[in-house]
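Predict structure. Input: Transcriptional regulator, AbiEi antitoxin, Type IV TA system, 338 residues.
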Amino acid sequence: MPLLLSDRATTAAPVPLVTVGEARAFGIRIRTTAFVRIRPGIYADRTAYEALKPWERYAVRVHAFVRAHPDAALCLESAAVVHGLPLFGETRDIHVHSPERPRSRRFGDVAVHTSEDERVLERRGGVLVTSLLDTVADLGRALPPARALAVFDAALSPAQGGPLSLGRLRGLGASRVSSRGSARQRWLWEHADDRAESPAESVSRAVIEWSGFPRPELQRVFHYEGAEDRVDFHFPGSRVIGEADGWGKYGFEDPDAAAERLIEEKRREDRLRRHGHPFGRWDLADAWRVTPLQRALTTAGVAYARPADPVMLHTLQDRRRDAPRRSPGAFAARETRS
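Output follows.
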């Protein structure tokens, strides 16, 4: 089953946070190697923190910031954590919206943004954030195209619990005074699709286009042997089916249920193959690396329809908004209070 925005929404830190005052009150020794400093005066269990996925570590950092600054309004990727919008890797900065400031500023790993355009603020789980509509529109202008496409698709897709419409996003984008990222925004308006059921599908769709493959049908349904089988991508010219696999697709957090889903998926694939549909499979990591996805499709029998777009493919390597590989303490040490 597709993950919903509500499933991904993180309205509390994924691991418990402990302040210096709490540690003193309860006799917890946090100034040891068993704890890691997330922000000045805020710690977490090191083992639990280091076991998290990169985007979960970012969520810990976001909620540690909120713990220290409960009235700050989160925006961009920081608001995306609370809304459940898809993120990839660990974001470098904590993003805060502060319209009162005369200009945007940075304080260590905290980027404080201002704008002529008004943002709607709301509380989600007690956390103050820009609205889902504003957050999606802002990320569409700021993120590299494939990541932004995954955000737009998720916000539009009923299968992912997305409540927005493309018309609302167009209307908001067209009304903005700032022209920053407007070309990227127009590209998203043309390519966002509410049929996408996962971020892996969204990124894969971008890579398929930029690689020069023919445009596939999305979520095509086949009826064979009394079954109804829906597929991620179908290439009518070659009858090839493309599937963007991911852990969430099979529910590996429940081993018994996952085993049953894998068995059913094998039956489904065999059934489709019996009726003349070659298969190409890849996962999200394959899509980011491009070549494995291309190889999966060409091996299955999909021919290129046009030259690749090297400029757009190069945007997949854009890591400017990602955190450098260092300890969270390094972020904490760089923070200066405004």
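Confidence is low (pLDDT under 50) at residues 327-338.
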